[in-house]
Amino acid sequence: MITQTNQLTPPADVLEPAPHRLISLDALRGFTIAAMILVNFPGDGDHVYFQLQHTKWNGLSFTDLIAPFFLFIIGVSITLAYAKRLEKDDPKGEMYKKIILRSVKIFAVGMFLNLLPTFDFSDIRWTGTLHRIAFVFLICAVLFLNTTWKQQAWIGAVTLIIYWLALTLIPTPGVGRVMLEPGVNLVAWFDSLYLPGRMWQGTWDPESILSTFPSAVSGITGMLAGRLMISNFTKNEKVNYLMTTGLFTAVLGFCWNLTFPTNENLWTSSFVLVTSGFAALVLGAVYFLVDILGNTNGTKPGIIFGANAITVFVLADVLSILFYYLKFGGHSLNEHGVAALTDLGFDPRLASMAYALFFVFVNFIPAYLLYRKKIFIKL
């Protein structure tokens, strides 16, 4: 759906800016999308700084924070968008229809991106970033409409504990012992039976079936943060509670990491707590600087990216065909760009990052044009 408005700020949307105006959340959403593009499209995939790539297995890098941050933001946005509708006693039936339809649309767009650029249906992958966003949004939105914040907290905690116990106590079938190695764990075994299509890593997929449940908890933690943001506490109290809870959550996750390693590919329980804790700390800091102190300098690029967040994410994949796949003079544009920079003396990793930043700017141009014309595309 494409909407056009004469307002200075975008219309309310669950995956886009919400009715309770939080400039900090709008900006954080946009900068998260920009970070996604930055790490997804390096100039040279063989030369990337550690922090700009996913950890191979256990551990945590800047890149590993991006997806859980976005799920956390979705959770916050769900609370901000639907709390007011519940207060007005809007029919739940209509809300369910929109929630399901939006989830289906996001999943469908994810499938479209998976088919780019060859559209080879014989080698199709049924999972991905947008697929996970679709499921987490669906689960969290339905939960929000039917549970209290305390029930949501309990559901999240129990889910993480059950997931931990399952992966650390149940032996991997066919192996005979508990395993948490790539492709040899309960999650990968379950996918081998029930996940259709091609797996991203051959024998396993980072967006697996079972890991969808703890990833939904990342959204739940965002909903709990959102509940705090619309509470009757003063702004300073909100910051204090948000950052204190974020610090406690991150520390708890680090402690859990001693027995259940922080791992994005498995979306372990410790990973959920560490990343949600960091997300709460960052949101609290940005909220304090922007919404309380009024320091909005530097937030505009994030707001522009965030105004059409999913659209920009999709656009980046489409534009990557021109900037990364098509050959000009025997080489793609990214190969030409990185080669030119390395010839000037740039470190290959710096050249790769510089081209990625250039591609982020390329995507900013249509995002800015849409924002300036007050066009906001909602799935």
TrEMBL record:
Coiled coil stretches, renumbered: none
Keyword Disulfide bond: no
Keyword Transmembrane helix carried by entry: yes
Domain Heparan-alpha-glucosaminide N-acetyltransferase catalytic as annotated: residue spans: 21-237
Domain of life: Bacteria
Pfam families (UniProt xref): HGSNAT_cat
Residue stretches spanning the membrane: 65-83, 99-117, 129-146, 153-170, 209-229, 241-260, 266-290, 302-326, 353-371
InterPro entries: HGSNAT_cat
UniProt keyword annotations, A-Z: Membrane, Transmembrane, Transmembrane helix
Protein name (database record): DUF1624 domain-containing protein
Source lineage: Bacteria, Pseudomonadati, Bacteroidota, Cytophagia, Cytophagales
